[in-house]
Write a structure and sequence with these properties.
By secondary structure, the protein is an all-alpha fold. It has one domain. α2 runs antiparallel to α3 and α3 packs antiparallel against α4. It is rod-shaped.
Length: about 280
């Protein structure tokens, strides 16, 4: 019995180590700030001398709104993928029906019907291929939206770090020194968050390039299908089900460049910092 328990414990430990090695226990996405300056310490400073704090808070608020929009776009895009998959199923059924009609035409010996059925098969085949590429593009765009969402979160924390630095700067200039206050920590925090934001933007841009490549293939295939069918639909349209309904692809999400800063260095905690990890993406100062 003791040996059995020991073997079971070893199995659990091995599984835990494997999960950790695979990154199962790592942080998920951007993390909250380590250094935050309590604005109560600069509450007596005249508002006219806190213009930089107000401006930084405004930028932080804009970044929060951008994150909320990115999160909503990412969630809603699942519906678009399901619609595209349904259109692909319909296109496959159209192709199958065209093949059935061609067999009937060949059996009749009427070459006019055979020629018409042959053209119909070609058109339905192109439509089905376009529908396949549409689903592939929508999935790729969804992957880009996820990376863009991560970028907007990193950028929000970068703007938040700038806001914390602005408050810390006012305190330093007014010779206000809360216990454990280390001004350089706020500078380093901004530098590190700037780098994090830039890396996230690069990753999102790379994912967008992949999606755009598939998008171009889809539009080309869709244009060929529409032309052969003579539907007159736009090359941006779905049209894969044989209807003239046009589906407009998503507008490309803009990913602005974060400001460049100096090379970052590791943050260190101080007494004036609120290092709790309860910072939420919808927090406000």
């Amino acid at each position: 019995m003791i040996k059995l328990k020991a073997a079971f414990a070893t199995l659990i430990l091995g599984g835990t180590i494997a999960l950790t090695a695979c990154g199962g226990g790592g942080p998920a996405g951007p993390q909250p700030l380590q250094h935050k300056f309590d604005e109560m310490y600069i509450a007596r400073v005249p508002p006219a001398e806190q213009s930089a704090v107000v401006a930084a808070h405004s930028e932080y608020h804009k970044a929060r709104l951008a994150l909320a929009t990115a999160e909503n776009d990412y969630k809603e895009w699942n519906t678009q993928i399901e619609v595209a998959k349904n259109e692909r199923k319909a296109a496959s059924l159209m192709e199958s029906s065209a093949q059935t009609r061609k067999k009937a035409a060949e059996a009749s010996g009427d070459m006019n019907r055979v020629n018409t059925a042959t053209r119909e098969i070609r058109a339905s085949e192109l439509a089905r291929k376009a529908a396949d590429l549409k689903v592939e593009y929508y999935v790729a765009h969804h992957a880009y939206l996820k990376k863009h969402m991560f970028y907007t979160k990193e950028d929000m924390y970068y703007k938040k770090a700038q806001h914390e630095l602005a408050k810390a700067t006012v305190a330093k200039d007014k010779n206000i020194r809360p216990k454990g206050f280390v001004f350089v920590n706020y500078q380093k925090q901004v530098q590190r968050r700037s780098k994090d934001s830039q890396r996230a933007k690069f990753s999102a841009d790379r994912e967008k390039a992949k999606a755009d490549s598939v998008k171009a293939k889809w539009q080309k295939e869709q244009a060929a299908a529409d032309k052969l069918r003579g539907t007159g639909t736009s090359t941006m349209g779905g049209g894969s089900t044989g209807t003239t309904t046009t589906t407009t692809p998503p507008e490309d999400t803009k990913t602005p460049d974060p400001a460049n800063k100096d090379e970052p260095s590791n943050d260190t905690k101080d007494g004036s910092s609120d290092s709790k990890k309860d910072d939420k993406s919808t927090e406000g100062n």
